[in-house]
Design goal:
- The protein is an alpha+beta fold.
- The chain folds into 3 domains: 87 residues; 54 residues; 155 residues, Heat Shock Protein 90 (2-Layer Sandwich).
- The strands form 2 sheets. The chain has a 5-stranded mixed sheet, covered by helices on one side. The protein has a two-stranded antiparallel ribbon with strand order 1-3.
- A hairpin with a 3-residue loop joins strand 4 and strand 5.
Length: 319
């Protein structure tokens, strides 16, 4: 059955259709010329007065146009077939990855809970176990949030509850309470311009920040060094989130915001679902903003830029 699946591979099928199309054109041309020659022979025998001019090339051109139209239709079908096949493969990989992502923290939780139940551990050891279990539950919560966010995004009538807030205070508060939880003595520097007000959905934007932070930590081979910068532009503000991690290759930068797309090195398995950046880009657009990525390449770090429209401060709204 494997050879049959390979035979129906979209690329092989498209090549086969191209060859079949060329063969049909050749057969059509030979048939047309042969039929015209026979008609001339019959006319020469019975009605010589009908022998005027050469072949009717208009009929030949009409036939070729029809064949070209068929080829264009086949090409369109091939493009959609290829995209659908790629999406199916990505979905299968996604299901496998999500299953692994769910099982790993659950297995860790079960192991620690069973150990606590069977053994009388010192208080310090119990504290370590509790910290590990909290980290596992946080990991599960983040994955479930991403799944729910991706599900909502696919709904046509998904809307955000945008409320004007002090965006500077929101960003500062979010990262300050998390900078001490970075692994391996990581560092997070904040440069926040005060009193910038933006209309956002708090829960949705926290999902954006959480995914940016998780990706920066996951793709840092050394202690993560992060920098968050927020500044005013003309009628908007620019939030920049930079790390000194692996960086993103130029070819990957075009695809990283696609659903299920993941940047991986050979024979490497990094946890994640491939939904994070897709959720980020879609949610930023719902905030009437834009997002872009900047990276010099492998091991050169990555910077994400999010630009959002400013709204009036409370004082200006009241005046």
């Amino acid at each position: 059955m494997k050879w049959l699946r390979k035979l129906f591979n979209p690329l092989l099928a498209f090549i086969g259709i191209q060859l079949a199309w060329v063969l049909v054109v050749v057969v059509w041309f030979n048939w047309f010329i042969g039929s015209h020659r026979k008609l001339r022979e019959i006319a020469a025998k019975y009605r010589p007065d009908l022998l005027t001019g050469g072949p009717d090339w208009l009929i030949l051109a009409e036939g070729l146009v029809l064949l070209v139209a068929i080829l264009v239709g086949v090409y369109v079908i091939f493009v959609y077939w290829s995209r659908q096949s790629a999406l199916v493969r990505e979905q299968r990989q996604f299901i496998s990855q999500v299953t692994h992502e769910l099982k790993s923290p659950l297995a860790s939780l079960q192991l620690h809970l069973e150990t606590l139940r069977r053994h009388q551990l010192p208080l310090e050891k119990q504290q370590v176990f509790l910290e590990t279990m909290l980290a596992d539950t946080s990991r599960l919560n983040g994955l479930i949030d991403n799944l729910l966010s991706a599900s909502r995004i696919d709904q046509k009538h998904w809307q955000l509850n945008l409320q004007p807030i002090d965006f500077s205070e929101f960003i500062s508060h979010y990262f300050r309470i998390r900078q001490y939880n970075l692994p391996r003595a990581g560092r997070l520097d904040l440069e926040i311009e005060p009193n910038l007000h933006v209309a956002i959905d708090r829960d949705a934007f926290e999902t954006i920040l959480r995914n940016l932070l998780e990706n920066a930590v996951l793709y840092s081979d050394q202690s993560p060094e992060l920098r968050v910068n927020l500044k005013r532009l003309d009628n908007s503000c620019l939030l920049s989130f930079a790390d000194r991690g692996r960086g993103i290759d130029q070819n990957d930068q075009k695809n990283i915001f696609k659903m299920f797309y993941r940047v991986r090195r050979k024979n490497e398995n990094i946890r994640g679902s491939g939904l994070g950046l897709y959720i980020i880009k879609t949610t930023v657009r719902k905030h009437k903003g834009t997002i872009s990525v900047e990276s010099a390449g492998q091991d050169q770090g990555t910077t994400f830029h999010i630009e959002l429209p400013l709204c009036p401060t409370p004082e200006k709204r009241l005046s």
